[in-house]
Design brief:
9 strands, 35% helix, globular, alpha/beta
């Protein structure tokens, strides 16, 4: 819409911190940052629109500034695909390319991802990943249940890339602790990223400790570090929530994902396909990310 109507596309996101604390435009990409002097105009002086038809009806008017707040369970995929013209690529097919044009991690997060991959012997597109959101709707799962689901999730991740290491992310400390143990029991390699805070904070449900004492942006770095470690695997098993699906779209390998929503189905859905020996000490020397724009 912005390009078609000769407007600029800008993104202002401030919860729990400014988006620029985590992601920046890459050099040569689209600079979506909102200058401080323009922030008030966008938030208070422009025309506020809902998504969908309201945007369509006003896209060719003389209004200089339009803004919209839009949230959906699928990141706008359904709405986007409904607007497609014949021959245009679907949301999932272009997401990876659009993401790389707009976003690259800030240096602190990029370094954390590279350091974690080097320490764990992970090489982009040469390992599998699993994201298990096991505390969704309940914070008090029994240990036996969590371990059963962990085994099922790791088994399914191993089926995506047999014999490869598996990166495990979860909202449960018990799952992350047990995953590597189970991997060794099956002569496989399951690795985790040691989060701090542990588990990583939810961006949309963050306790920012009030406006006078907000959490520093660095408290949320691990949320993006885990996201990129999932995405760079290129093959992801995931369960509840949209975090795993988001990682698949960022990674861009749409043919190597496995989603299983029903926990009861997970127990016997897959067999473990492991590897023998120790983790490989591979180090990827190429750039993981595009350079960020000068700040």
């Amino acid at each position: 819409f912005a390009a078609a109507t000769k407007r600029l596309l800008l993104i202002q996101w401030e919860r729990p911190c400014k988006l620029e604390e985590f992601l920046l435009p890459p050099k040569g990409g689209l600079d979506w940052r909102v200058p401080d002097w323009l922030s008030h105009m966008i938030l208070y002086d422009g025309m506020e629109l809902g998504a969908g038809s309201k945007i369509r009806r006003n896209e060719n008017t003389g209004v200089r500034t339009m803004r919209t707040y839009y949230q959906s369970h699928d990141g706008g995929e359904t709405w986007y695909n409904e607007q497609l013209q014949p021959g245009e690529a679907a949301y999932a097919e272009i997401y990876h390319a659009v993401w790389e044009t707009i976003f690259t991690p800030v240096p602190a997060i990029a370094s954390a991802v590279k350091r974690a991959m080097d320490e764990k012997g992970l090489v982009p597109n040469e390992y599998a990943a699993a994201h298990l959101r096991v505390l969704y709707t309940s914070e008090n799962r029994k240990e036996g249940v969590l371990k059963k689901w962990t085994r099922g999730g790791i088994n399914c991740a191993s089926s995506l890339r047999p014999g490869k290491p598996i990166f495990l992310a979860s909202d449960s400390g018990l799952v992350r602790e047990y995953g590597p143990i189970y991997g060794r029991e099956r002569s496989g390699v399951v690795v985790i990223h040691e989060n701090n805070p542990n588990p990583p904070l939810h961006l949309d449900r963050a306790d920012v400790n009030g406006t006078d004492h907000p959490r520093p942006a660095s408290d949320f770095y691990d949320t993006f570090t885990d996201l990129y470690l999932l995405a760079l695997s290129g093959c992801i098993f995931f369960s509840k929530g949209g975090y795993g699906l988001w990682a698949i779209y960022i990674g861009g390998n749409l043919t190597c994902g496995y989603r299983l929503k029903g926990w009861n189905k997970l127990t016997n859905a897959c067999d473990f396909m492991g590897q023998s020996g120790e983790p490989r000490a591979d180090v990827f020397n190429g750039p993981l990310f595009l350079e960020p724009i000068d700040v």
